[in-house]
Design goal:
This protein has a single domain, classed as Up-down Bundle (de novo design (two linked rop proteins)), CATH 1.20.1440. The protein contains 6 helices and 3 strands; from the N terminus they run ααβαααββα. A hairpin with an 8-residue loop joins strand 2 and strand 3. The radius of gyration is 23 Å and the shape is elongated. By secondary structure, it is mainly alpha-helical. Strands 1-3-2 form a 3-stranded antiparallel sheet, with helices on one face. The two termini are 44 Å apart.
């Protein structure tokens, strides 16, 4: 990863964010992205290899693992992080597009180019883009929280699961690798996602309230 480019990108997003947006970005970067990269991937690296069932029937372990883990936590979190950070990039793309358009207009007219958006100020199309990005980010986190809840009841993993799917010869016990550690990381990611949802909604309410006062 090009950390210099990523740092410039973060500084660009922060430039047009409110205080709530800066807290949200720090929370995503420190408590979600870094935890995912540094720790979570290693915790789930052995989920299939160390998933054991008390039978040697060929195919039984694979079928039971696929039933109880239809989608890996890691892949779901990766998709969630990608989707939840994309709206912030749209804000930067919106500013870059409008400023490039302004440069072309002034270049054709022979005037001096000016910045149509001041850092920290949101008006016109940028205000709508920023507000929609907040609602989209909150919606993505809510949808993934629901998906996790549907796949893994109460966001927790049991120590032992009982499987009776074909080709298992009967009801077999299957053991999950390090379920306690995985439950801790799962609850941590769920809590941080909930905090991010609250921050996004609070920031959206702040923007709408500020606009109403100005009007």
């Amino acid at each position: 990863m090009n950390w210099e480019l990523f740092e410039k990108l973060l500084s660009g997003v922060n430039k047009y964010s409110t205080a709530f947006g800066r807290i949200w970005l720090s929370l995503v970067f420190i408590f979600r992205l870094l935890v995912y990269v540094v720790a979570a991937e290693r915790v789930w690296s052995d989920d299939h290899k160390d998933f054991e069932c008390n039978t040697r029937q060929p195919g039984c372990t694979n079928v039971c693992f696929d039933h109880f883990f239809p989608v890996s936590h890691i892949r779901l979190w990766a998709l969630q992080l990608i989707l939840v950070t994309c709206p912030s990039l749209l804000v930067i793309m919106h500013v870059a597009y409008r400023e490039a358009k302004e440069q072309r207009l002034h270049k054709g007219g022979g005037g001096n180019c000016r910045h149509i958006y001041s850092p920290g100020k949101k008006r016109g199309g940028l205000w709508w883009t920023y507000l929609l990005s907040l609602l989209f980010k909150a919606g993505v986190d809510v949808v993934f929280l629901y998906i996790f809840y549907r796949f893994y009841k109460n966001y927790t993993l049991p120590h032992v699961v009982k499987c009776e799917l074909q080709p298992c010869p009967n009801v077999v016990d299957c053991f999950i690798s390090r379920p306690t550690e995985k439950n801790i990381f799962t609850l941590f990611m769920v809590v941080t996602a909930c905090v991010c949802v609250v921050l996004s909604l609070v920031e959206a309410a702040y923007l709408v309230g500020k606009r109403c006062r100005e009007c």
